Amino acid sequence: PATPPGPPPGWADGTGRGHTSGAKKNVSRREKRPSSVNSKKSENLRLTSLPSCRTPAADAGFGPHTTTSADVVFGDRDGVLFVAADRVEEVLATAHRIREVERAQADGIRAGRTLREQTDFDGYLARRATDSSHTFRRHLRGLGGAVEE
Where is the composition biased (Polar residues) (predicted)? Predict the structure, then answer.
């Protein structure tokens, strides 16, 4: 089987989401999750290389979904994500934005600001009292704090 030419641009950008996990079935657990190299550190290590990959000989089904050799697989202990190769950059950019929001929130908590304060929850409740269609997700989006999108 042919080996892909290497990681897509941005793959080894240190976004810390365990990008190599789905790349090869027989890599060690340490290679699968960079943060497990030194469990005393709370941050993932910057990835500098991608383990060798194998191109699947056939499509694979996962529930109602089918993945092909045109897909990229990301995974860690929490699960896997199959992404069309032409959308990898978009997904990595979104993952990076989510990580930045989560880190800022964690920094705020360490500095003594509760999530309630950081998300202006009282402001949300006041707006919700006058506009029942105003959702918390919309509120967070307006603050730049939505991490689920």
Answer: 35-51
Q: Residues 23, 73: contact at Cβ < 8 Å?
A: yes
- In terms of pTM, does the model score above 0.70? no
Q: Which residue has the higher pLDDT, 82 or 23?
A: 82
Spell out the domain ranges in the chain: 1-85, 96-143
**How many CB atoms neighbour CB 104 within 10 A?**
13
Q: In the predicted model, what is the mean pLDDT of residues 20-39?
A: 40
Q: Cα–Cα distance between 107 and 67 in angstroms, integer?
A: 38
Residue 82 and residue 68: Cα distance in Å, rounded?
9
Using the Cα atoms of residue 33, residue 42, residue 139 and residue 129 in order, give the sign of their dihedral.
positive
Report how far residue 35's alpha carbon sits from residue 38's, in angstroms, rounded to the nearest whole number. Answer: 6
User: What number of other Cβ atoms are within 10 A of residue 20's Cβ?
Assistant: 23
- DSSP string covering 26-69: TS-HHHH-GGGGSTT-SSPPPP---------SS-EEETTEEE-T
Selected residue with higher pLDDT from 9 and 62? 62
Residue with tokens 């009282």: 122
